[in-house]
Amino acid sequence: MLLTRYLSLRSLRARPLRVLLSMFGITIGVAGILAIGIANQAAMDSITRLFEDTSGRVDLMVTAASSDSGFSDSLARSLVNVPGVQMALPILKAQTALASSSAQTELGLSFFGTNSGGLILYGVDPLGEPQARDYTITNGRFLSEDRQAFEVVLVENYADDQDIRVGDRVGILTPYGVEKVQVVGLMAREGPGQTNNGVFGVLPLEAAQQLFNRPGQVDQFDLILDPKASSPIESIQEVLQKRLGADYSVTYPAGQGRRMTQMLSNYQIGLNFLSGIALFVGAFLIYNAFAMTVVERTREFGMLRAIGMTRRQITQQMLVEALVLGAAGSILGVLLGVLGARGLAAMMSTLLGSPVQSQLTIPPAALAVSLSMGMGVTLLAAALPSIQAGRVTPIAAIRIRGVPRQGWFQRHGWKLGVVLLAVSTALLIWNPFADDPLFRAGSMVVFAMFTGITLIIPAMVDAWERWTRPLMAAIYGASGALGSRNIQRARSRTTLTVGALLVGVAMILVVRGLTGSFAADLRVWVESYLGGDVYIHSSVPLRADLARQISAVDGVAAAASIRYQPTEVRLSDGSFEAITYMAVDPAAYSRVTRFVFSDNRTDSSAALSTLAAGDALFISSVLAEKYQWQVGDAVALRTQGGVRTFTVAAVVVDFFNQGLVVTGNWNDLRRYFHSNEASTILVSVRDPQSVAAVQTRIDDLYGKRYRLSMDSNASIRARVFNLMDQAFSMFDVLALLSVLVASLGVVNTLTMNVIERTREIGMLRATGMTRRQVILMVMAEAGLMGMIGGLLGLVFGVLLSRIFLTGMTAMSGYRLDFVMPASGILSALVVALVISQLAAFPPARQAARTNVLEAIQYE
Amino acid sequence: MSVLQASQLIKRYQLGVHEVNALNGVDFEAAAGEFVAIMGPSGSGKSTLLHLLGGLDAPTGGTVMLAGQELSGLNDQQATLARRRSIGFVFQFFNLLPTLSAEENILLPILIDGKKPAEFKERLDQLIALVGLEERRTHKPDQLSGGEQQRVALARALITQPAILLADEPTGNLDSNTGKAIMELLRRSCDDLNQAIVVVTHDARAAAFADRVVFLRDGQVERRLQLAQDEAPAQRMRAIIEIMESLEL
Ligand SMILES: Nc1ncnc2c1ncn2[C@@H]1O[C@H](COP(=O)(O)OP(=O)(O)OP(=O)(O)O)[C@@H](O)[C@H]1O
Ligand SMILES: [Mg+2]
């Protein structure tokens, strides 16, 4: 279209800076959405690949219901007899370590995925295995057919790290001490090679049974089904489960990734929401820019109307401009988003504790969504100004610029605003969105809330201005009072700018409030959870009485054994969910650290003695919220001795295994789980200064013998907090971007005001206003906007974060206390005031440079 | 035969409780090839009349007939099309789009009408020659002087061969020589192109180019003066000034 080329494109080109400013908001929003989409996809791919690849073509897995003990390998025969099952591959899992490696395995404390140190070896059937999983042998060969050969195939990267070559005989830790096996081949770190983050190897089943003293036992059977089987996989799973009984569980391999997926999606909801907010603020910017265009080009439109352009044509031209702007902004956003995705993927890798694919593919759905969001928001934001442009009367071109009429929205909008605000606040408090995992409806309500506040602003501007005039006069002087009064003039422009600032500030507060609350909670827990001074961990199971020996070491105040026992809990519908049973000796444990009871009225000594008496549990607050369990309720766990019922003695704050954890006493562990080995020994030291010395002493005495690795409380804490900060920093970045976008709105608005008032400023200069006074006048206007935006943002930020917190509790089961860090409030206010002043400076200087003569001759 | 015929035009503005009678029953006509000037004191309703004649605004009472079509009865869309095809405007200020070159500005009505500018090349060249802007075709408005800008506006108003050309103080912010040049151009397009032209002006020298002068006062026609173009310019001007003085303008 020729007209488009001449009018729309030219007019865009004539205002490059404005175009750029307006585009920026869209770009940021689109980039955010896309980056999250891409990283999301990459993370999901990584998770599924991890679990799919490591399980290969396996259709179902059979494990013992209580996974710690294995079961007989003779089960294979009855498994293959089930119709539809083609092959049953045994796996014996052994956790060990290389005898030669230095004790550098860290305590695998990761909040979101568990990552234990140490080498994992699988005893497998050398013949069947290659049919189930694709081992890429990079060097040497795969296992021979000899089921008893002491040979091993290791992951190449790990072998390289440990300086192991094909043909080497390496020593591994076994219950008999160090035993030698020969490395016959290396596999690539892909497919099954990704198991345990690549610290992995396979050896023949019978050799493994012999080495690890588990004759005739396996931990798992991987089943491959007959592809031609008539019955669906679900029914085969059902048949198997029924036939094997409650002592076994038959699961799908991919199920393992589900929890991580869920955890990630929570994180992504937050990110998605915030990039939505950035886009929302971007929409303000676009609307503002277009509304300004209409004012600025009133005469142009009037003239075009006079020489015969129809309303439709004018509106269309404006929309074409918006389309071009939206497209350019969105495309730029796509580029930025691809870059941003890299950072985000790195962040998610940290969270997951496993690498997220670095080669990012752009999922078409995310691309489509982000592009159409960008374009859609731009068009929507530009729609009203475009229609207004069409309404410009031809006579407007001829007349000297008149007083802008007060539109319906300025006069009556506040009524709609109040309604929107009331309804959205009520909806948010009621929170019917718990079932919507993506918080889509919830986000819409939040946007409605912001729209509501924005609509109310025009009605409040006069009052604000009157109250704050003395303050403005005090700060900015006489011309400042004049500038402060100017805020009432271009009211819709002012309103939108204030609205954008408000949203940005509120977002900073929400982010600070939520992460602050979450971090505070996590901190309390970490502080007490890590109550001891030294953590002792080993890549092999620890004898329970080691704790007693360690407590006798010079300088040690107390030592307590902790056992993390994987088990399952029965839910009200009869199904089971995997959780962790943490076993402690309540007395010993209390000497080292303490429990954090979620209800601080809990009588801790009574609770502890109930726990010590046995058949009792402390459940985590997460479980309590999730399943509505209370003190006194009976909870059934699957144990080695069958399903047993325990009484809930207390609810404690514990985020281990994402809060899916119960605590029981050591006697119950022995009685019901037939185990007496510790996962971790927690040590407290007499003199806090001597932690390092005590650590050395323990290491000298027992380090070698038990392959101990030690971590000081301080270093773990630093690691946890570091992880936490990294996870939250992305939120901060997005919230800050919203404010940045809002500040561009300030630049835009003030520039427009200055252009519009050129004659007036010239007149003021002519009558004796100094340049400095002109600057102060403009700065005062911005300062007032910043103040209104900042204070309102403060109110709504605090309100919203409280609401979100309640909502999050309902959705995830985390019960959090509201903590609004003072730094959050301070930084939000400072940001609003400082940014609005900084943004005001360029237009203020431009105003000060107004040439008096030109200004009064203008037109 | 008159191209433009207005009868009993009334325009009332409501200003709060006050009512302003900008026009109070004005009859007006202009024929093809006729050049009419409208004069009168400030606030007498000259611009208002011009706006009604051009369909920029609707009268409170009375009718405007343009080439046999009643303008005042048209809706916005129809009035817009009438302006686009049958009326040319030249204003005192801001006639041009700053982003377009002189040539593109002249072709603007063609573009708006969705026609191909290439088909109007001949007419464009002819008009550019008429207004003497051969050397300024690709200049942007801010690279043109005020007089040159008005000449571009004039060419633009003529590109569609409108039935009538309306100009509101086209020489209002030009020096007298440039103003004279513009009026000569208007006169020439009236003679050469047989164009009907209505010009609002305060300047007796400018009005002297017209065939007829209509004097307004308080929204009513006070006097009409027929001028013979074969008379000397100075004589015509004297006649106008005489009336202006008698009306205490
Ligand atoms: N939009 C309006 N609202 C109210 N009154 C108006 C409006 N437009 C014009 N008027 C009034 O109508 C009368 C005629 O105005 P008009 O602009 O036609 O005068 P004019 O003869 O063109 O004056 P000038 O020579 O100063 O341009 C004036 O009294 C003016 O105040
Ligand atoms: Mg006038």
Automatic annotation (TrEMBL), chain A:
Taxonomic superkingdom: Bacteria
Compartments it resides in: Cell membrane
InterPro entries registered for this protein in UniProt: ABC3_permease_C (IPR003838), MacB_PCD (IPR025857), Macrolide_Exporter_MacB (IPR050250)
Segments passing through the bilayer: 20-39, 269-295, 319-345, 365-384, 414-433, 439-461, 494-514, 733-755, 775-798, 818-841
Topology versus the membrane: Multi-pass membrane protein
Keywords of the record: Cell membrane, Membrane, Transmembrane, Transmembrane helix
Subcellular location, principal: membrane
Protein's UniProt keywords contain Metal-binding: no
Gene Ontology terms: cellular component: plasma membrane
UniProt GO MF annotations: transmembrane transporter activity
Residue stretches making up the ABC3 transporter permease C-terminal domain: 272-393, 734-851
Record domain MacB-like periplasmic core: where: 20-230, 494-700
Annotated family: Belongs to the ABC-4 integral membrane protein family.
PANTHER family: ABC TRANSPORTER PERMEASE YTRF, MEMBRANE COMPONENT OF TRANSPORTER-RELATED
Full protein name: ABC transporter permease
Organism annotation: Levilinea saccharolytica
TrEMBL record, chain B:
SUPFAM superfamilies on file: P-loop containing nucleoside triphosphate hydrolases
Keyword Nucleotide-binding attributed: yes
Alphabetical UniProt keywords: ATP-binding, Nucleotide-binding, Transport
Domain of life: Bacteria
Pfam family, one: ABC_tran
Gene Ontology CC annotation, any one: plasma membrane
Gene Ontology MF terms: ATP binding; ATP hydrolysis activity; transmembrane transporter activity
SMART domains xrefs: AAA (SM00382)
Signal peptide range: none
Family annotation (InterPro entries): AAA+_ATPase, ABC_transporter-like_ATP-bd, ABC_transporter-like_CS, ABC_transpr_LolD-like, MacB-like_ATP-bd, P-loop_NTPase
PROSITE patterns according to UniProt: ABC_TRANSPORTER_1 (PS00211), ABC_TRANSPORTER_2 (PS50893)
Domain ABC transporter: 4-243
PANTHER family: ABC TRANSPORTER ABCH.1, IMPORT ATP-BINDING PROTEIN
Protein's name in the database: ABC transporter domain-containing protein
Species the sequence originates in: Levilinea saccharolytica
